[in-house]
Fold this sequence. Notes:
- By secondary structure, the protein is mainly beta.
- Helices cover about 5% and strands about 40% of the residues.
- It is built from one helix and 24 strands.
- It is globular, with a radius of gyration of 21 Å.
- The model has no long low-confidence stretch (mean pLDDT about 95).
- Utilization of purines as secondary nitrogen sources, when primary sources are limiting.
Amino acid sequence: MSQILSEQEFKDQVVSLYTDVVGEKVGGSIVNFSDEWFAAAENLIKPKAPIRDATKFVYSGAWYDGWETRRHNTEEADWVTIKFGVSSAKIIGTEIDTAFFNGNHAPAITVECTHLEEGQSLDHANWDLVIEKTECGPSQRHFFKRSSITEKSYTHARLKQYPDGGIARFRLYGEVVPHLDSIKANSIIDLASVGFGGVAVKCSDQHFGSADNLLLPGRGHDMSDGWETKRSRQPGHVDWVIIKLGAKTNINEIVIDTAHFRGNFPQKIAIDGLSTNEVIPTHDDSKWVSIIKPTKTTADKEHSFTELENIDQSYTHVKLTIIPDGGVKRVRVLGTIAK
Length: 339
């Protein structure tokens, strides 16, 4: 069974601890769908919030930035299949947003998932129900959390709406299950990457860009897909983000990328490390140790740090501190998996 949560409860219990595994920004992609007569299914997994936009489809005086199917009012459900952007994941909850769909929203939804190995076809997939049939209202965000995370990991999701209508955005949160067993003992990998299970579990501020962008692949396309805080005005101010690594890590190198941040990059950055069983440690825990002391940064550049402090230890978390504020595109924590 799933619980209906408030937005704040969902942020605290789901968003801060897990990854949206179907999102376009992690590489999620639409595989197929039953219908997209009025608006394209690909809008479901767009990273930005839905908006009224005259460049979108115009219908009855409204603009629909989402997925909308034709009206059929039968017992059949419309559906869309999405391939995860990560290798596989266990599922904990979903957000269904019906923004701007009022009178034509999806009355109810379910979410099913399946696990396919490389080369397997969806034609013979076995689907598990991970979010049971639940009613949806018009033009609002709905937050559903399972009573427990799924035991199985999955590679694809199928969102169904009963019987037809519109959904603006679909987020599906879970714990990334990377293929760590296939990695050789001395292989150096980026264990902050979302693909290897990294999660930005807490930050001081994310006014202009969310902290989870730090862990995405590539260097992005503009400032909007990085982490950027608001301008501080108090002397001594710093902003910070805590990243839970995909596995306990022996760190060899850290990369801080300020791509596209030119007049708003941090003046300095610092990195601390921590080994703990806590999922979300406090930012002022006395056990944090320095890995990179406060160091000046520059605009639009990948800064590579190989002369690190305290690397005789292994770490479960790193904390990036930006001084005093600003924007960072990506954080890479390169190292080996600790035994």
